[in-house]
Design goal:
220 residues; mainly beta; 5% helix; 55% strand; globular
């Protein structure tokens, strides 16, 4: 069960935004990630609880930030309920998308488990609903993911496979690189792995989402 700590930074000026203390683990029905986020001063900011099925689809998502709350799951695309800090207003949303996204490293791992790309896989287009901090406002975006390289690094526990992904925002053309080992993000824009107590869990290869319109919502 990987357990550790990420530091989070502003994408533009690299201002420290806080830390995310996490643990995650594969199970008989999929994979789960749980974390707590804190500010640079140590104050509690929010939490993430994400569970995936064996195909990498989000079967349960619960986000908390600034007293806002989101609960979601894969249902006719993705469906969610967003509740305001007073708890008196709840707004439901549904988009024919593949997955959720956000600032947490959990969502990068979730996408890698959904796509299961290999270096021979074509670039894959996906539609995601991303929740923006600090009020968890939903926004639908299209991305493309490509696995550029997989490299084995020797460790005391055997070879560690590090995957290098190129992720592109299709609305702006902006590209960035994400490095993932199993179910741990080693580095990504705004994210750095600061501490890891146990080795990452291995991931499965071989995607069933090479064509987004097979058994999932069409990303077009």
């Amino acid at each position: 069960m990987p357990r550790g700590r990420y530091s989070l930074h502003d994408l533009h000026d690299h201002t420290p935004l806080g830390e995310e203390h996490f643990h995650c683990a594969p199970g008989p029905s999929g994979w789960r990630y749980v974390s707590q986020t804190t500010s640079p001063s140590g104050d509690h900011l929010g939490s993430v609880d994400l569970a995936l099925d064996e195909l990498g689809r989000p079967i349960r998502l619960e986000l908390h930030a600034a007293s806002w709350q989101v609960r979601g799951a894969a249902l006719e695309g993705v469906t969610w309920v967003r509740t305001d800090p007073t708890g008196s207003h709840a707004t439901e949303g549904n988009v024919r998308a593949h997955a959720f996204a956000g600032t947490s490293p959990a969502f990068l791992i979730a996408m890698s488990r959904l796509l299961r790309l290999t270096p021979a896989s074509p670039t894959t287009r996906v539609r995601v609903v991303t929740f923006t901090d600090p009020v968890l406002a939903p926004r639908t975006v299209d991305q493309s993911w490509a696995l550029m390289n997989s490299e084995a690094h020797p460790t005391d526990n055997g070879p560690l496979i590090v995957d290098e992904y190129q992720v592109s925002a299709l609305d702006t053309g902006e590209q960035h690189t994400v490095h993932i080992a199993g179910d741990v993000v080693l580095a990504a824009p705004g994210i750095e792995l600061e501490h890891l107590e146990t080795p990452p869990s291995p991931r499965a290869y071989g995607s069933d989402l090479d064509e987004p319109d097979t058994d999932r919502p069409d990303a077009d």
